[in-house]
Amino acid sequence: MPTPASLDATFQALSDPTRRAILARLAQGEASVMELAEPFAMSQPAISKHLKVLENAGLISRGRDAQRRPCKLEAQPLAEATGWLIEYRKYWEAQFERLDDLLDELKRLEAMAGKA
Amino acid sequence: MAFGGPLRISTPSDTEILTERDFAAPRDLVFACYTQPPLIKRWLTGPPGWTMPVCVFEARAGGRYRYEWHKGDERLAMSGVIHTITMPEHIRSEEGFDQPDTGGMSQSLVDFEEKPEGTTVINRLTYASKALRDQIAATGMADGMEMSFKNLDALLVERKR
């Protein structure tokens, strides 16, 4: 069960489009800071600042290689943060599918009664 | 694509959850399904495996509603009181689950928007404070995201690759 503090850190880290793009890039594999900076037209220090936020939230980890220190996506906090939204949506989607069926039935009844 | 699902969900602020869903049916029918117990019982049936033996909905200002879902000895129940109800446009109410640690009371505003293709139901749930939001987070019902659900969904799909 995620703690409120860790969820806050995750959501706060995800609130920036650059950081979401970095995560999307890292979902395809590890990358160095230089490789990450390329598509963003951003300086390495600027990217490093975003990486620090992601690292503090536990969303990424940095490799031990002192020269390269490749960044790697850490899936767990992201999965925890998305978990509740996915469950919530699944629950309502299931209810609403039944509502769709019920509405079809009611429309047919109205048509039979000559209303629609 | 036909007018309909899937559900859209977002968290516009620290204390809100917003859901939107399109239904290919006239507004008066959708509103009836939300406000008449025999119809509510047909679709608001709870999580898989649960039944809804108790369904009360007094469709007037000051009216109360209660939904109770059962699965064996387990009980899940929600009660609310209606502040304003305007047929067939909106229902403003305050509601909460019986169980503790489920976020306390929340304000609910359900708007039924008439469209050429059908009806869009927009439900805005507002919790009392950030503290409550955190409580919800602790039960796996967190919010506080600034971004749309879609972005996260896409990220998750990529991650699963």
TrEMBL record, chain A:
Xref: Pfam families: HTH_5
PROSITE patterns: HTH_ARSR_2
Domain HTH arsR-type span(s) in chain numbering: 1-93
Domain of life: Bacteria
InterPro entries noted in UniProt: ArsR-like_HTH (IPR011991), HTH_ArsR_DNA-bd_dom (IPR001845), WH-like_DNA-bd_sf (IPR036388), WH_DNA-bd_sf (IPR036390)
NCBIfam families: HTH_metalloreg
PANTHER family: SLL0088 PROTEIN, TRANSCRIPTIONAL REGULATORY PROTEIN
Protein name: Transcriptional regulator
Annotated source species: Devosia yakushimensis
TrEMBL record, chain B:
InterPro entries to which the protein is assigned, alphabetical: ASHA1/2-like_C, START-like_dom_sf
Sequence similarity: Belongs to the AHA1 family.
SUPFAM superfamilies linked to this entry: Bet v1-like
Name recorded for this polypeptide: ATPase
Superkingdom assignment: Bacteria
Domain Activator of Hsp90 ATPase homologue 1/2-like C-terminal: start-end pairs: 25-156
Pfam families documented for this protein: AHSA1
